[in-house]
Amino acid sequence: MTAALGVPGPLSGSTRLYAIVGDPIAQVASPGLFNTAFRERSADAVLVPLHVAPAELQRVIDSFRAIRNFDGLIVTVPHKIAAIEWVDELGPNASLTGALNTIRKGDDGRLIGENFDGEGFVRGLASRGQTVTGRRVLVIGAGGAGCAVAHAIAAAGAHAIGLFDIDARRRRALVDDIKGHRPGLDVFEAKPDALGFDVIVNCTSVGMRTGDPLPLDITHLASHALVADIILKPVMTPLLVAARARGCAIHQGPAMLEGQIDAVLDFFAVRAPT
Amino acid sequence: MTAALGVPGPLSGSTRLYAIVGDPIAQVASPGLFNTAFRERSADAVLVPLHVAPAELQRVIDSFRAIRNFDGLIVTVPHKIAAIEWVDELGPNASLTGALNTIRKGDDGRLIGENFDGEGFVRGLASRGQTVTGRRVLVIGAGGAGCAVAHAIAAAGAHAIGLFDIDARRRRALVDDIKGHRPGLDVFEAKPDALGFDVIVNCTSVGMRTGDPLPLDITHLASHALVADIILKPVMTPLLVAARARGCAIHQGPAMLEGQIDAVLDFFAVRAPT
Q1: What is the interface pTM, i.e. ipTM, of the complex?
Q2: Residue A98 shares a structural domain with residue A131
Q3: Which of A5, A33, A35, A48 best tests the B interface by mutation, with the highest count of B CBs <10 A?
């Protein structure tokens, strides 16, 4: 039989420990996905949720240095940028984006942060037969996830990228940053308006709470456009509902997480026991 | 079907968190026992092992204050006495013994420590059809577990209790303490010698490591005596092997842990979701 999703193998005193930290935490899908993946790899490991407020993040990350069987941490909203401060070393994508979503403890006890969100988004698209290559993409939101997704979309060969964030300074900084890394690419500050784009990606949390407005004006959304959201819960955000009603292709949030599981497990060096 | 021992229910973002902290940790049985018990009670909860050295105990306990979905901690060797310092409040058995083996977080966030070792030992004996009532009992070891077991044996109506610890001051302090609480009871400092006792309880860690000597002289061990060990691994310590070879009844370590599961779950207020 197939065991239930999210159920780890039997726990014992020698089980290795992983966690996901966020605030709120009830909506996260990582415990389900990672515990299933650990069991599939016959790894004696478990991943648990940790509900931690921003002011307490440093204290909790530091305590992991003291827990010898603690090997890795998934970091989610709102900690992805702040967590940068509390690790010892950054991988290339965390350096590029100024945000991390994963921390592993090295053999020497050092904490190494990396960001797999962008790679996860692009891999998730590919797993659903979609692509950003050669297309005009509008990214809404330039926070931790938005930065990671925008950099990955640039790396994946988008034709042009428009960026919107309600914070003008943050929006401008991300445009400049991507331009600096990819001088030939057409990257620009955009309005929150679907007009002229054929891929829309919502990287804000707008749509997570009941009664949220749409994160952009979709009056001129083209019916051939692909509309993607990175929100995990609800899976069908108001934006995706509206896009589907117009006949657009849609792409749901959990794919970004599924798209990075293998990369994160490799980063954690989770292997079947020898 | 019966699910495998130690396997919790499916984990999600709303799973409540429990842990056992010790050094070493690989030998502990709590993850197996508690995760099975959580699943039997349909509780959305998981208990994980934490390997933490004595110098780091305070930092790890303090970090639990910051983890909102963390509800409780089992505390094992060598932290049972030191942990007293880092909680906000003690239950009656922890106050009596000066050691704790369980911490729960109250609704107000305060950490409350209690000790279920003694109750667990006496309940575990009863579950195997054994008793200390009316018998002459020798307790070897006056550390955290020894204190708890000796107080519980006194409460359970032993006829007399001899106490040995290699540390004379610790041995004397425990004798005085039990005498103070039970003025009528025959409690005295004893040698590590089975002569004259009909129940022997090893509460030291001697027997955990290969090549350990016996924790007492059993030359004069009576064949009608009951010999108990609280060591979890190996289940058959050299002391129990030698006692069985002489025809004595024996009592193994895991019974003490099993004997306190229900009491600890009640203390944690673990209930099936409503």
Answers
A1: 0.83
A2: no
A3: A48
